[in-house]
Amino acid sequence: MAGATRPDDGACVLDTGALEQLIELLRADGYRVVGPQVTDGAIVLGTIAGAGDLPAGITDDQEPGRYRLRQGTSQALFGYAAPAQGWKRFLFAPDETLWRAERTDGGFRCEEEPPAIGRTALLGVRPCDLRAVDILDQVFTRSGVVDRRYQARRAAALIIAVECTQAGGTCFCASMGAGPDIADAANCGADIILTEFLVDAGPLLLARPASARGAELLAGVPGWRAGAADCEAAAEAVKGAARSMGRQMPADVATLVGRSLDHPHWADVAARCLGCGTCTAVCPTCFCSTVEDSTDLAGTTAERRRRWDSCFTLDFSTLHGGPIRSSGAARYRQWLAHKLAHWWEQFGRSGCVGCGRCITWCPVGIDITAEARALAEREGRTDANH
Ligand code: SF4
Ligand code: SF4
């Protein structure tokens, strides 16, 4: 927790003007700065020109199947929970061409399409989303097969994380060990960690360097050395978010799901699930994709595209003319069981970071924590009644 920060950790305090200068510094260094901003009634991620583009004073209400913005009670720059989108789209493109081919006199010429990659600073990455980036790093770069496109984008990314000081109505990162604080600054994958706290004059940011590049950047902006009171105020703000988190996942969910594969509860969820795949699109760790080949009508050019896919589509599991997961129950079970149980066998960790997006953005409000709890309750357990 930020409470572990000591004034001698290289931590400093930035006001909004100093944050503005940090953004200017990044832009001058050739970075496209991506951060949260209000668009069409939601906090989404996009290019920002300065601190003025951040959603100052705005907060969110999130519940199963419901998301609303409203004016907050302070001018906090980061006074809301997880933005509508995760950050994976900036590292793992939703839709991109992999190669193009062209007919020549003697046959075909095939060329790889170079990925569009530029230096990108991701500003405002929440602890759960930072953990999600580490999960994607593992999947795409540390699991034996390296995805060079992901690897190149990740290498060009600089991450400025922001600890959570406000829990959303659907978050449960604390029970997944993925927030609302960032405990291990040196190994978290960020370059700078910010924690916002409020004083009478407005919001301030405790800034901790988490990499050599982050320390270099912080040395270039007009912050002041953090004192014990600054660190305490920041730690208290994060503890407040932890205290107000209303949901949690059963601690033994991986084994619970593993022994519930034939459970009648999957049919109960299927009766509500629309199979729309929204949960997989908003999930910051879902990484499934498909490839599509196409040619022009004359057959002179062809291309292969890769785009995000979802285990909720029938095509995703189609083998030899038919889907192997033809029922909604089988598809929901596949998604939840992979995320919470089989991910452990595959990657040695959970695939869920507790960001709550799949709950908020599910059009019928299906709640992954409630479904896991229902499995436990049908075993006659009462310890899952959180
Ligand atoms: S499964 Fe849901 S709560 Fe877990 S990381 Fe994905 S979107 Fe977030
Ligand atoms: S759980 Fe919700 S978001 Fe996911 S496929 Fe079903 S209806 Fe869509």
What does it look like?
By secondary structure, the chain is α+β, with helices and mostly antiparallel strands. The chain folds into 2 domains: 2-243, no CATH class; 253-378, no CATH class. 29% of the residues lie in helices and 24% in strands. The protein has 11 helices and 16 strands. It has helices spanning 16-28, 127-141, 148-155, 212-219, 228-243, 253-258, 265-270, 278-282, 328-347, 357-360, 368-378, and strands spanning 12-14, 32-39, 42-47, 58-63, 66-71, 95-103, 108-112, 120-125, 157-162, 192-199, 202-209, 224-225, 289-295, 301-308, 318-319, 322-323. It has an 8-stranded mixed sheet with strand order 3-2-8-9-10-11-1-12. It has a 4-stranded antiparallel sheet with strand order 7-6-14-13, with no helix packed on it. The longest helix is centred in the last third of the chain and has 20 residues, at 328-347. It is globular and about 65 Å long. Residues 1-7 have low confidence and may be disordered. Bound molecules: iron/sulfur cluster (SF4) (2 copies).
